[in-house]
Structures are given as C-alpha cells and as structure tokens.
Specification:
The structure is a single chain. By secondary structure, the protein is an alpha+beta fold. Helix content is 57%, strand content 13%. The protein is built from 10 helices and 6 strands. A 6-stranded mixed β-sheet has the order 2-1-3-4-5-6. Helix 3 links the parallel strand 3 and strand 4. Helix 8 runs antiparallel to helix 10.
Length: 307
C-alpha cells in the first residue's frame, strides 16, 4: 500500500494539480499479532461540495464491490492524505481521524509527504487520536483549559504515532533488484536545498503567529473575567449600603437577587486550535532539526574528502 500511496501522491506532485490528495485505506486486522495490515487503497475526489461527497460515496461502494469480487481486502481501516512539510494537523484532519475511529477502534491515518520523498527521504507516518483526546472530543468538540488540565491532554499526546513497517511483495522485490542494476546519477553529497528550509521556517513563524493570536484572545478573556468580578463586587457593596439605608429609614429592602444571573461569565476561550498549532510547531521544529542535521553531516563528509 505504501507504494500505491507514494505513486499516486508523487503523480499529483509532478502534475502540480493539487498538492493535497486523499483516499481510503483497505486492509485487515491481525489480532494474533496485534497488527493492522494495510494492503490496498484508492483515491477520492478532493472537494467539500455536496455533489463531490455523493460521488465519493458511490465510488467507495463501487470499489468495495469490485474488490470483493476479485477477493481483495475491502475492509476500510482508515484514510491516507498527502501533505507538504507537516501541515496536515488541523481541524479537518482531527475530524476525519475522529470519524474513522468512531467506526473502528483500530483505524489510522497515513500521512505522505511527496516533497520530502522527492528529496530522498520516504515520508510515511501513521497517526490516530490518543485515548484521552478521543474520549474528550467525543464529549465536547472544543477544549477548554480546565478540560486539558483534568484529562492531562497536551500537544504532545493529542495524536498517537503508530510505527510503520513497509513490506514489499515478491514482484516488487524483483523490480527493486532490476532497478538496483541501473546506474544512478544521484550525488550523495548534494546538500539540502535552502528553499526547503526557508519554507519550513516560514511555516514555523506562521505557527508562532497563530499562538500569539490565541494568547491575545486568552488575555482578553482574563480581562473580561476580572471586569465581571469587579463589577459584581461593586454591585454587592452598593446593594448592601442601599439595604442598610432602607432599614435605618424603616423601609423593607427588596428581595435578594441572584448576582450570578445579573453578571454572566464570559464565554471561555477554546484551546483546541492552540493545541493543533503547537503540534504543528513541534513537527516543524523536528523537521528542521532533521533537515539541518543531514546537511551538516554531508558538509563535514564532503569537506573531509576535499581536504
């Protein structure tokens, strides 16, 4: 399946039609070995319109019938999606992973990066929502600070990465042996491109801007809470003085009112977007570290040969 994912994603990259392609993963669950085997996949139309969604549903049913007729695994075990530079972690991705997990506990999402693969590093990663994040998202679609604190959810454990083991068929191994005999003109001392690193830094700075905007919202929320508490205390104090004055004059004070009904709490700030932004920032940092580490290693190796 990895070869199919890579081939389809790379084909779209070469055509420069749509950098984001997605499809359905098919396979089976090996319960004795506790392994999810992805054996086949097929693409879907990349659109959010009602017409395209209906076409995708009909296409999935037709593919299932066709694969079943030729005795190929047709059970859906997740979905795959191509992404550039680890930009997949957003609300749509979270919703898709959650929907598949609701149907099947073992469902996964495979992320393929065609740009990184074209640079010589096969990029296939499998994810699923962690247990606490799945249960919390099933209860409430937006996270607050109290929810994250109580459930011990952070950007580090929002998603669980599943190890990926690629196994080729016998025919694929024969093809690889034939390709191995073809002369390769690739230079192993080619340094990483600066554009790749530049784009990664731009995405990292964009993620930091998103975190900064979320911090401004949190700061505004805290100011609103402080103002509400201040106004409530002032109202209670003024009401107490007015009641004391009326008692001194022999008048009956009005009945007590529920202060919490008069002064509503401001709506809490959702932390889910901040959590996703932090997850992307962490991925960008890891990617930049890996990219630079590889380049420095090649630089020192080339320098030793030249000297």
């Amino acid at each position: 399946s990895s070869g199919i994912n890579a081939e389809y994603g790379q084909d779209e990259l070469d055509k420069q039609l749509d950098p984001h392609v997605s499809g359905v993963l098919l396979g089976l669950i090996n319960e004795s070995r506790r392994v999810l085997e992805v054996t086949h996949c097929f693409p879907l139309m990349n659109s959010d319109t009602d017409e395209s969604m209906e076409i995708n549903r009909e296409h999935m049913l037709e593919m299932e019938r066709s694969l079943r007729s030729v005795n190929i695994d047709y059970q859906q075990v997740g979905f795959y999606q191509s992404t550039y530079l680890n930009t997949h972690c957003d609300r749509n991705f979270l919703d898709s992973v959650f929907d598949y997990l609701e149907e099947m506990n073992e469902a996964i999402a495979i992320i393929y990066d065609p740009l990184k693969t074209k640079l010589g590093h096969l990029s296939l990663r499998a994810f699923k929502l962690s247990g606490p994040a799945f249960r919390q998202y099933k209860t409430e679609k937006d996270f607050t600070a109290e929810m994250l604190r109580d459930k011990f959810i952070s950007y580090e454990n929002l998603f669980q990465e599943i190890p990926v083991v690629v196994k080729n068929s016998s025919l694929t191994n024969v093809l690889l042996c034939e390709l191995d005999s073809v002369q390769d003109t690739t230079s192993f001392f080619t340094l990483p491109t600066s554009s790749y690193l530049e784009k990664s830094m731009q995405l990292l700075l964009g993620g930091l801007d998103e975190i900064n905007q979320d911090l401004l919202k949190i700061n505004k929320f805290q100011k609103a809470v402080y103002k509400k508490q201040t106004d409530m205390m002032k109202y209670i104090q003024d009401r107490k003085e007015e009641n004391d004055r009326m008692l001194r004059e022999g008048l009956k004070p009005p009945p007590e009112e529920d202060v919490n009904e008069l002064f509503k709490d401001p709506p809490p700030v959702g932390r889910l977007e901040s959590l996703l932004s932090a997850n992307r920032i962490s991925s960008h940092c890891d990617m930049i570290e890996e990219h630079v580490k590889s380049g420095i290693g090649k630089l020192y190796l080339a320098d030793s040969f030249m000297s």
